[in-house]
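Predict the 3D structure for this chain.
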Amino acid sequence: MEDGMIRVFSPDDLPKLQQITMEAFEPVSIDRNIERKYGVINGVDWKTRKAEHIRLDAEREAGGIFVLEWEGAIVGYITCWCNRMAGIGNISNLAVDGNYRGRGLGRRLIEHAIEYFRQQGMTHVRIETLDQNEVGKFLYPSLGFEEVARQVHYCMELPAGVNDGTAPST
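Done. Predicted structure below.
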């Protein structure tokens, strides 16, 4: 098993996937960007919010999460879900342990997800990345993904009074 094995997610995998996520998304997370700008929000740091995304992915479509093991240890994963009405497979999250990057494991996970979507009858696959994700900006097109849009994320701090009923009405 020197080059890894991909298998379907088990609920016991969740803590390890969350751990890999928090390390891997440090430089490429919208939630991390928000925290850099505003600090910890409501006592919940970006890592906790991002870890919750993985839990929600498991809740939505656990059968679409694939885990990559290397010599018995979880070293990466990909989360997928199918929009069956539209025929579009969505890749929500992809992460590889920092000690195993540069070995083509992310590529293997995406290729596995693409095959999963084919088997599920999807006609298209969608993935997104931040402009600051240099790996994603190279990897995704190299697998055949084409850029279709750019999106800018905004955040604002609500002024005091907005949630206590004293905000002006429109």
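The CA atoms of residues 4 and 70 lie 4 Å apart.
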